[in-house]
Design brief:
8 helices, 15-stranded mixed beta sheet, Aminopeptidase, two-stranded antiparallel sheet, 17 strands, alpha+beta, about 375 residues
Length: about 375
């Protein structure tokens, strides 16, 4: 009898917890994501959850949300202006992406990349007592195609790249409406359910288990010593003409799980200076690769760049020496001061070495989540996110 009461208590507690989640998170609790309370997912990962396009539900807003391809300068300008004005910021850091910065990520896939603008009719007071009604943008969401490699499996996915809502209009389920309406339009065009990837840098997990969670460390480069010079090896900065063979090295690397854009986009990003790609080599042999990203972010009024991944193809000491030289070259050329290193790929080797002698100025967690695809949580140092 006590065993029966114990079982009933556990079942009752579980049902109450599910009801609580449905009330607390009415949108996310019903989405095809890796919910931590789904006990089946502890033993079985089904992969693709939904195969058919989503039906129109109460979150689909066809009246106030405009969906279109992102492939014109007017859209890039509108996205840049809106994000610069409304993206979350604090007293120390500020994200200010230019129109050309955004364009370089979308130009190669502009026929498959989309943006949704959420509109609202607002009253504008003119001179005197005149009042004029005008349509303004209060939110936007963009997606672009990527490739996801999980061990030997390749998947075409969509990156939810920019999701931003005016702080004055963040209530009324506007974020779920943007997501669901954008997804509805995309799936009506393709006639199938898509797989989506999104990044979260805050603490709102909504009871969802991420595909990959990792630490990010911020450092002040001005406190670092001048690097020890290399011997017969050299560090070169790759350009759009030399990135082809580097792309092949990325694909053949031993890192098991990869999320990456196509070669044309990589060439665009290298050419525009949004990705700084440094190669440690001797003669024609590649010994290491270091990927730095222009974050378009200011911290304490100084420029920030990010080491988003690295690939080690040589001994640890030489790999670390190559990194130090690459950082020094990148910092001098582009006038950066602060460096963020994401603890993915082979970056753990770099982070452990730095922390043995230097303190970080900030540490935070980032996570990538899959939508409509359930798989096991990945070790960040078995992953490369070149996105």
């Amino acid at each position: 009898m006590p065993v029966l009461y114990g079982i009933l208590f556990v079942i009752s507690f579980y049902m109450i917890f599910i009801i609580f989640l449905r009330i607390r998170h009415p949108y996310w609790s019903k989405q095809p994501v890796y919910h931590s309370h789904k006990l089946l997912y502890k033993f079985y990962h089904p992969g693709l959850v939904k195969h058919l396009p989503s039906d129109k539900d109460r979150y689909v807003d066809l009246k106030d949300i405009e969906f279109c391809k992102i492939n014109n300068n007017s859209n890039y300008d509108k996205i840049s202006t809106f994000v610069c004005e409304n993206y979350s910021k604090d007293e120390y850091s500020d994200f200010k992406p230019t129109s050309n910065y955004i364009k370089s990520y979308y130009e190669g896939t502009s026929d498959k990349s989309y943006v949704s603008f959420m509109k609202h009719n607002s009253l504008k007071y003119m001179s005197g007592e005149q009042v004029k009604e005008e349509e303004i943008i209060v939110g936007l969401l963009t997606t672009r195609p990527l490739i996801l490699k999980l061990d030997s499996k390749y998947l075409n996915i969509e990156l939810v790249d920019l999701l931003c809502v005016d702080p004055l209009y963040r209530k009324g389920y506007r974020v779920p409406k943007l997501i669901q309406t954008h997804k509805y339009h995309m799936e009506q065009e393709t006639n199938k359910a898509g797989i989506y990837l999104f990044k979260n840098e805050n603490h709102h997990s909504f009871n969802i288990i991420p595909l990959c969670k990792f630490e990010c460390y911020s450092f002040d480069i001005f406190t670092w010593r001048t690097p020890i010079k290399l011997g017969q090896e050299e560090i070169i900065e790759c350009n759009e003409c030399t990135s082809d063979f580097v792309y092949e090295t990325i694909m053949l690397s031993k890192i098991k799980n990869k999320v990456y854009f196509d070669l044309y986009t990589m060439n665009n990003l290298v050419k525009s200076g949004n990705i700084h790609l440094y190669c440690l080599k001797v003669n024609s042999k590649i010994l290491g690769l270091y990927f730095f990203k222009n974050s378009q972010t200011m911290y304490n009024n100084e420029f920030v760049f990010e080491c988003i991944c690295s690939i080690r193809l040589t001994g640890i000491e030489l790999f670390l020496k190559g990194f130090h030289n690459a950082v020094n070259l990148c910092c001098k050329k582009n006038k950066y001061r602060y460096l963020v290193i994401e603890n993915t790929s082979n970056n753990n080797i770099i982070i452990n070495k730095i922390l043995s002698s230097k303190s970080y100025i900030n540490k935070y967690y980032s996570s990538y989540y899959t939508y409509n695809y359930i798989t096991k949580q990945l070790n960040p140092n078995d992953c490369m996110f070149l996105i």
